[in-house]
Amino acid sequence: MQLAKVIGTVVATQKHEGLKGYKMLMIQPLTDSLQPSGKPVVAIDSVHAGYNDLVHWVSAREATLVMDNSFAPVDAAITGIVDDVHVVSGGIKDKEEIFA
Amino acid sequence: MILARVKGNVVASVKHPCYEGQRLLIVQPIDEKGTDMGDSFLACDTARSAPGDVVLVEREGNTARQLLGTSEDPFHSVIVGRVDKVDVYE
Questions:
Q1: Complex ipTM
Q2: A88 neighbourhood in chain B, CB within 8 Å
Q3: Nearest C-alpha in A relative to B26
Q4: In chain B, whose CA is at the least distance from the CA of A38?
Q5: For a 10 Å CB count at each end of chain B, is N or C smaller?
Q6: Number of alpha carbons in the 13 Å side-chain half-sphere of residue B61
Q7: What is the pTM of this model?
């Protein structure tokens, strides 16, 4: 599960039966400071995300669980549109105690 | 399972129904000495953890689904515990 930004759409006429009726978006995975991390991927959309939205997405086997057919050949799916990212600075609380 | 520190949280109002009521936290993997290692990612919380806590994170969908919901929910990573102490014998 990771953050990403929607950077485009993907249209395919010829595709696996399991993919029919689903919107596919191009997403760029991001770090928590919203910097690109890795290469863009194509993800199935389950939340009506649009261009430039900040989203969270799930990869691997779980991605296909957003679809009706959970055996569709999918390995990335958008699971939410992010409103806010809070990063708290200060590192580990009680670091000396835990890693003594 | 890996060690990670909780770095913050993510708020989303439009989301897959299974994420309703779940806390989605940013976790940063750390090594056995508490130093950051690799990229952070998101995980759902089952251990009432807060930013600054050292936690145990499971990056495996089946565990996440068993802890968080039904067998049809798209969860992949989950926080399964808060760490009190790490001892490494060298």
A1: 0.79
A2: 7-8, 51-52
A3: A32
A4: B39
A5: C
A6: 16
A7: 0.84
Q: Model confidence at B73, in pLDDT bands (50, 70, 90)?
A: confident
Number of folded domains that form chain B: 1
CA A86 to chain B, closest CA, distance in angstroms equals: 5
Half-sphere exposure of B56 (CA within 13 A, CB side): 12
Residue B8 domain boundaries? 2-82
Strands (E), B30-71: 41-45, 54-59
Best A48, A65, A94 member to test B by mutation, with max B CBs in 10 Å, is A65
What is d(CA A52, CA A67) in angstroms, rounded to the nearest whole number? 23
Q: Work out the minimum CA distance from B58 to partner chain A, whole angstroms.
A: 12
Res A57: pLDDT: 94
What digits encode the pLDDT tens for the residues A43-92? Answer: 999 899 989 999 999 988 888 888 888 888 899 999 999 999 999 988 88
Please report residues of A whose CB lies closer than 8 A to that of B34.
Answer: 92, 95, 98-99
CA-closest candidate to residue A44, choices A76, A91, A88 = A76
Rounded to 5°, the CA angle B65-B66-B67 comes to 90
Strand partners, A85: B10
Domain tally for chain A? 1
Per-chain mean pLDDT for chain B: 89
In a domain, B27, yes or no: yes
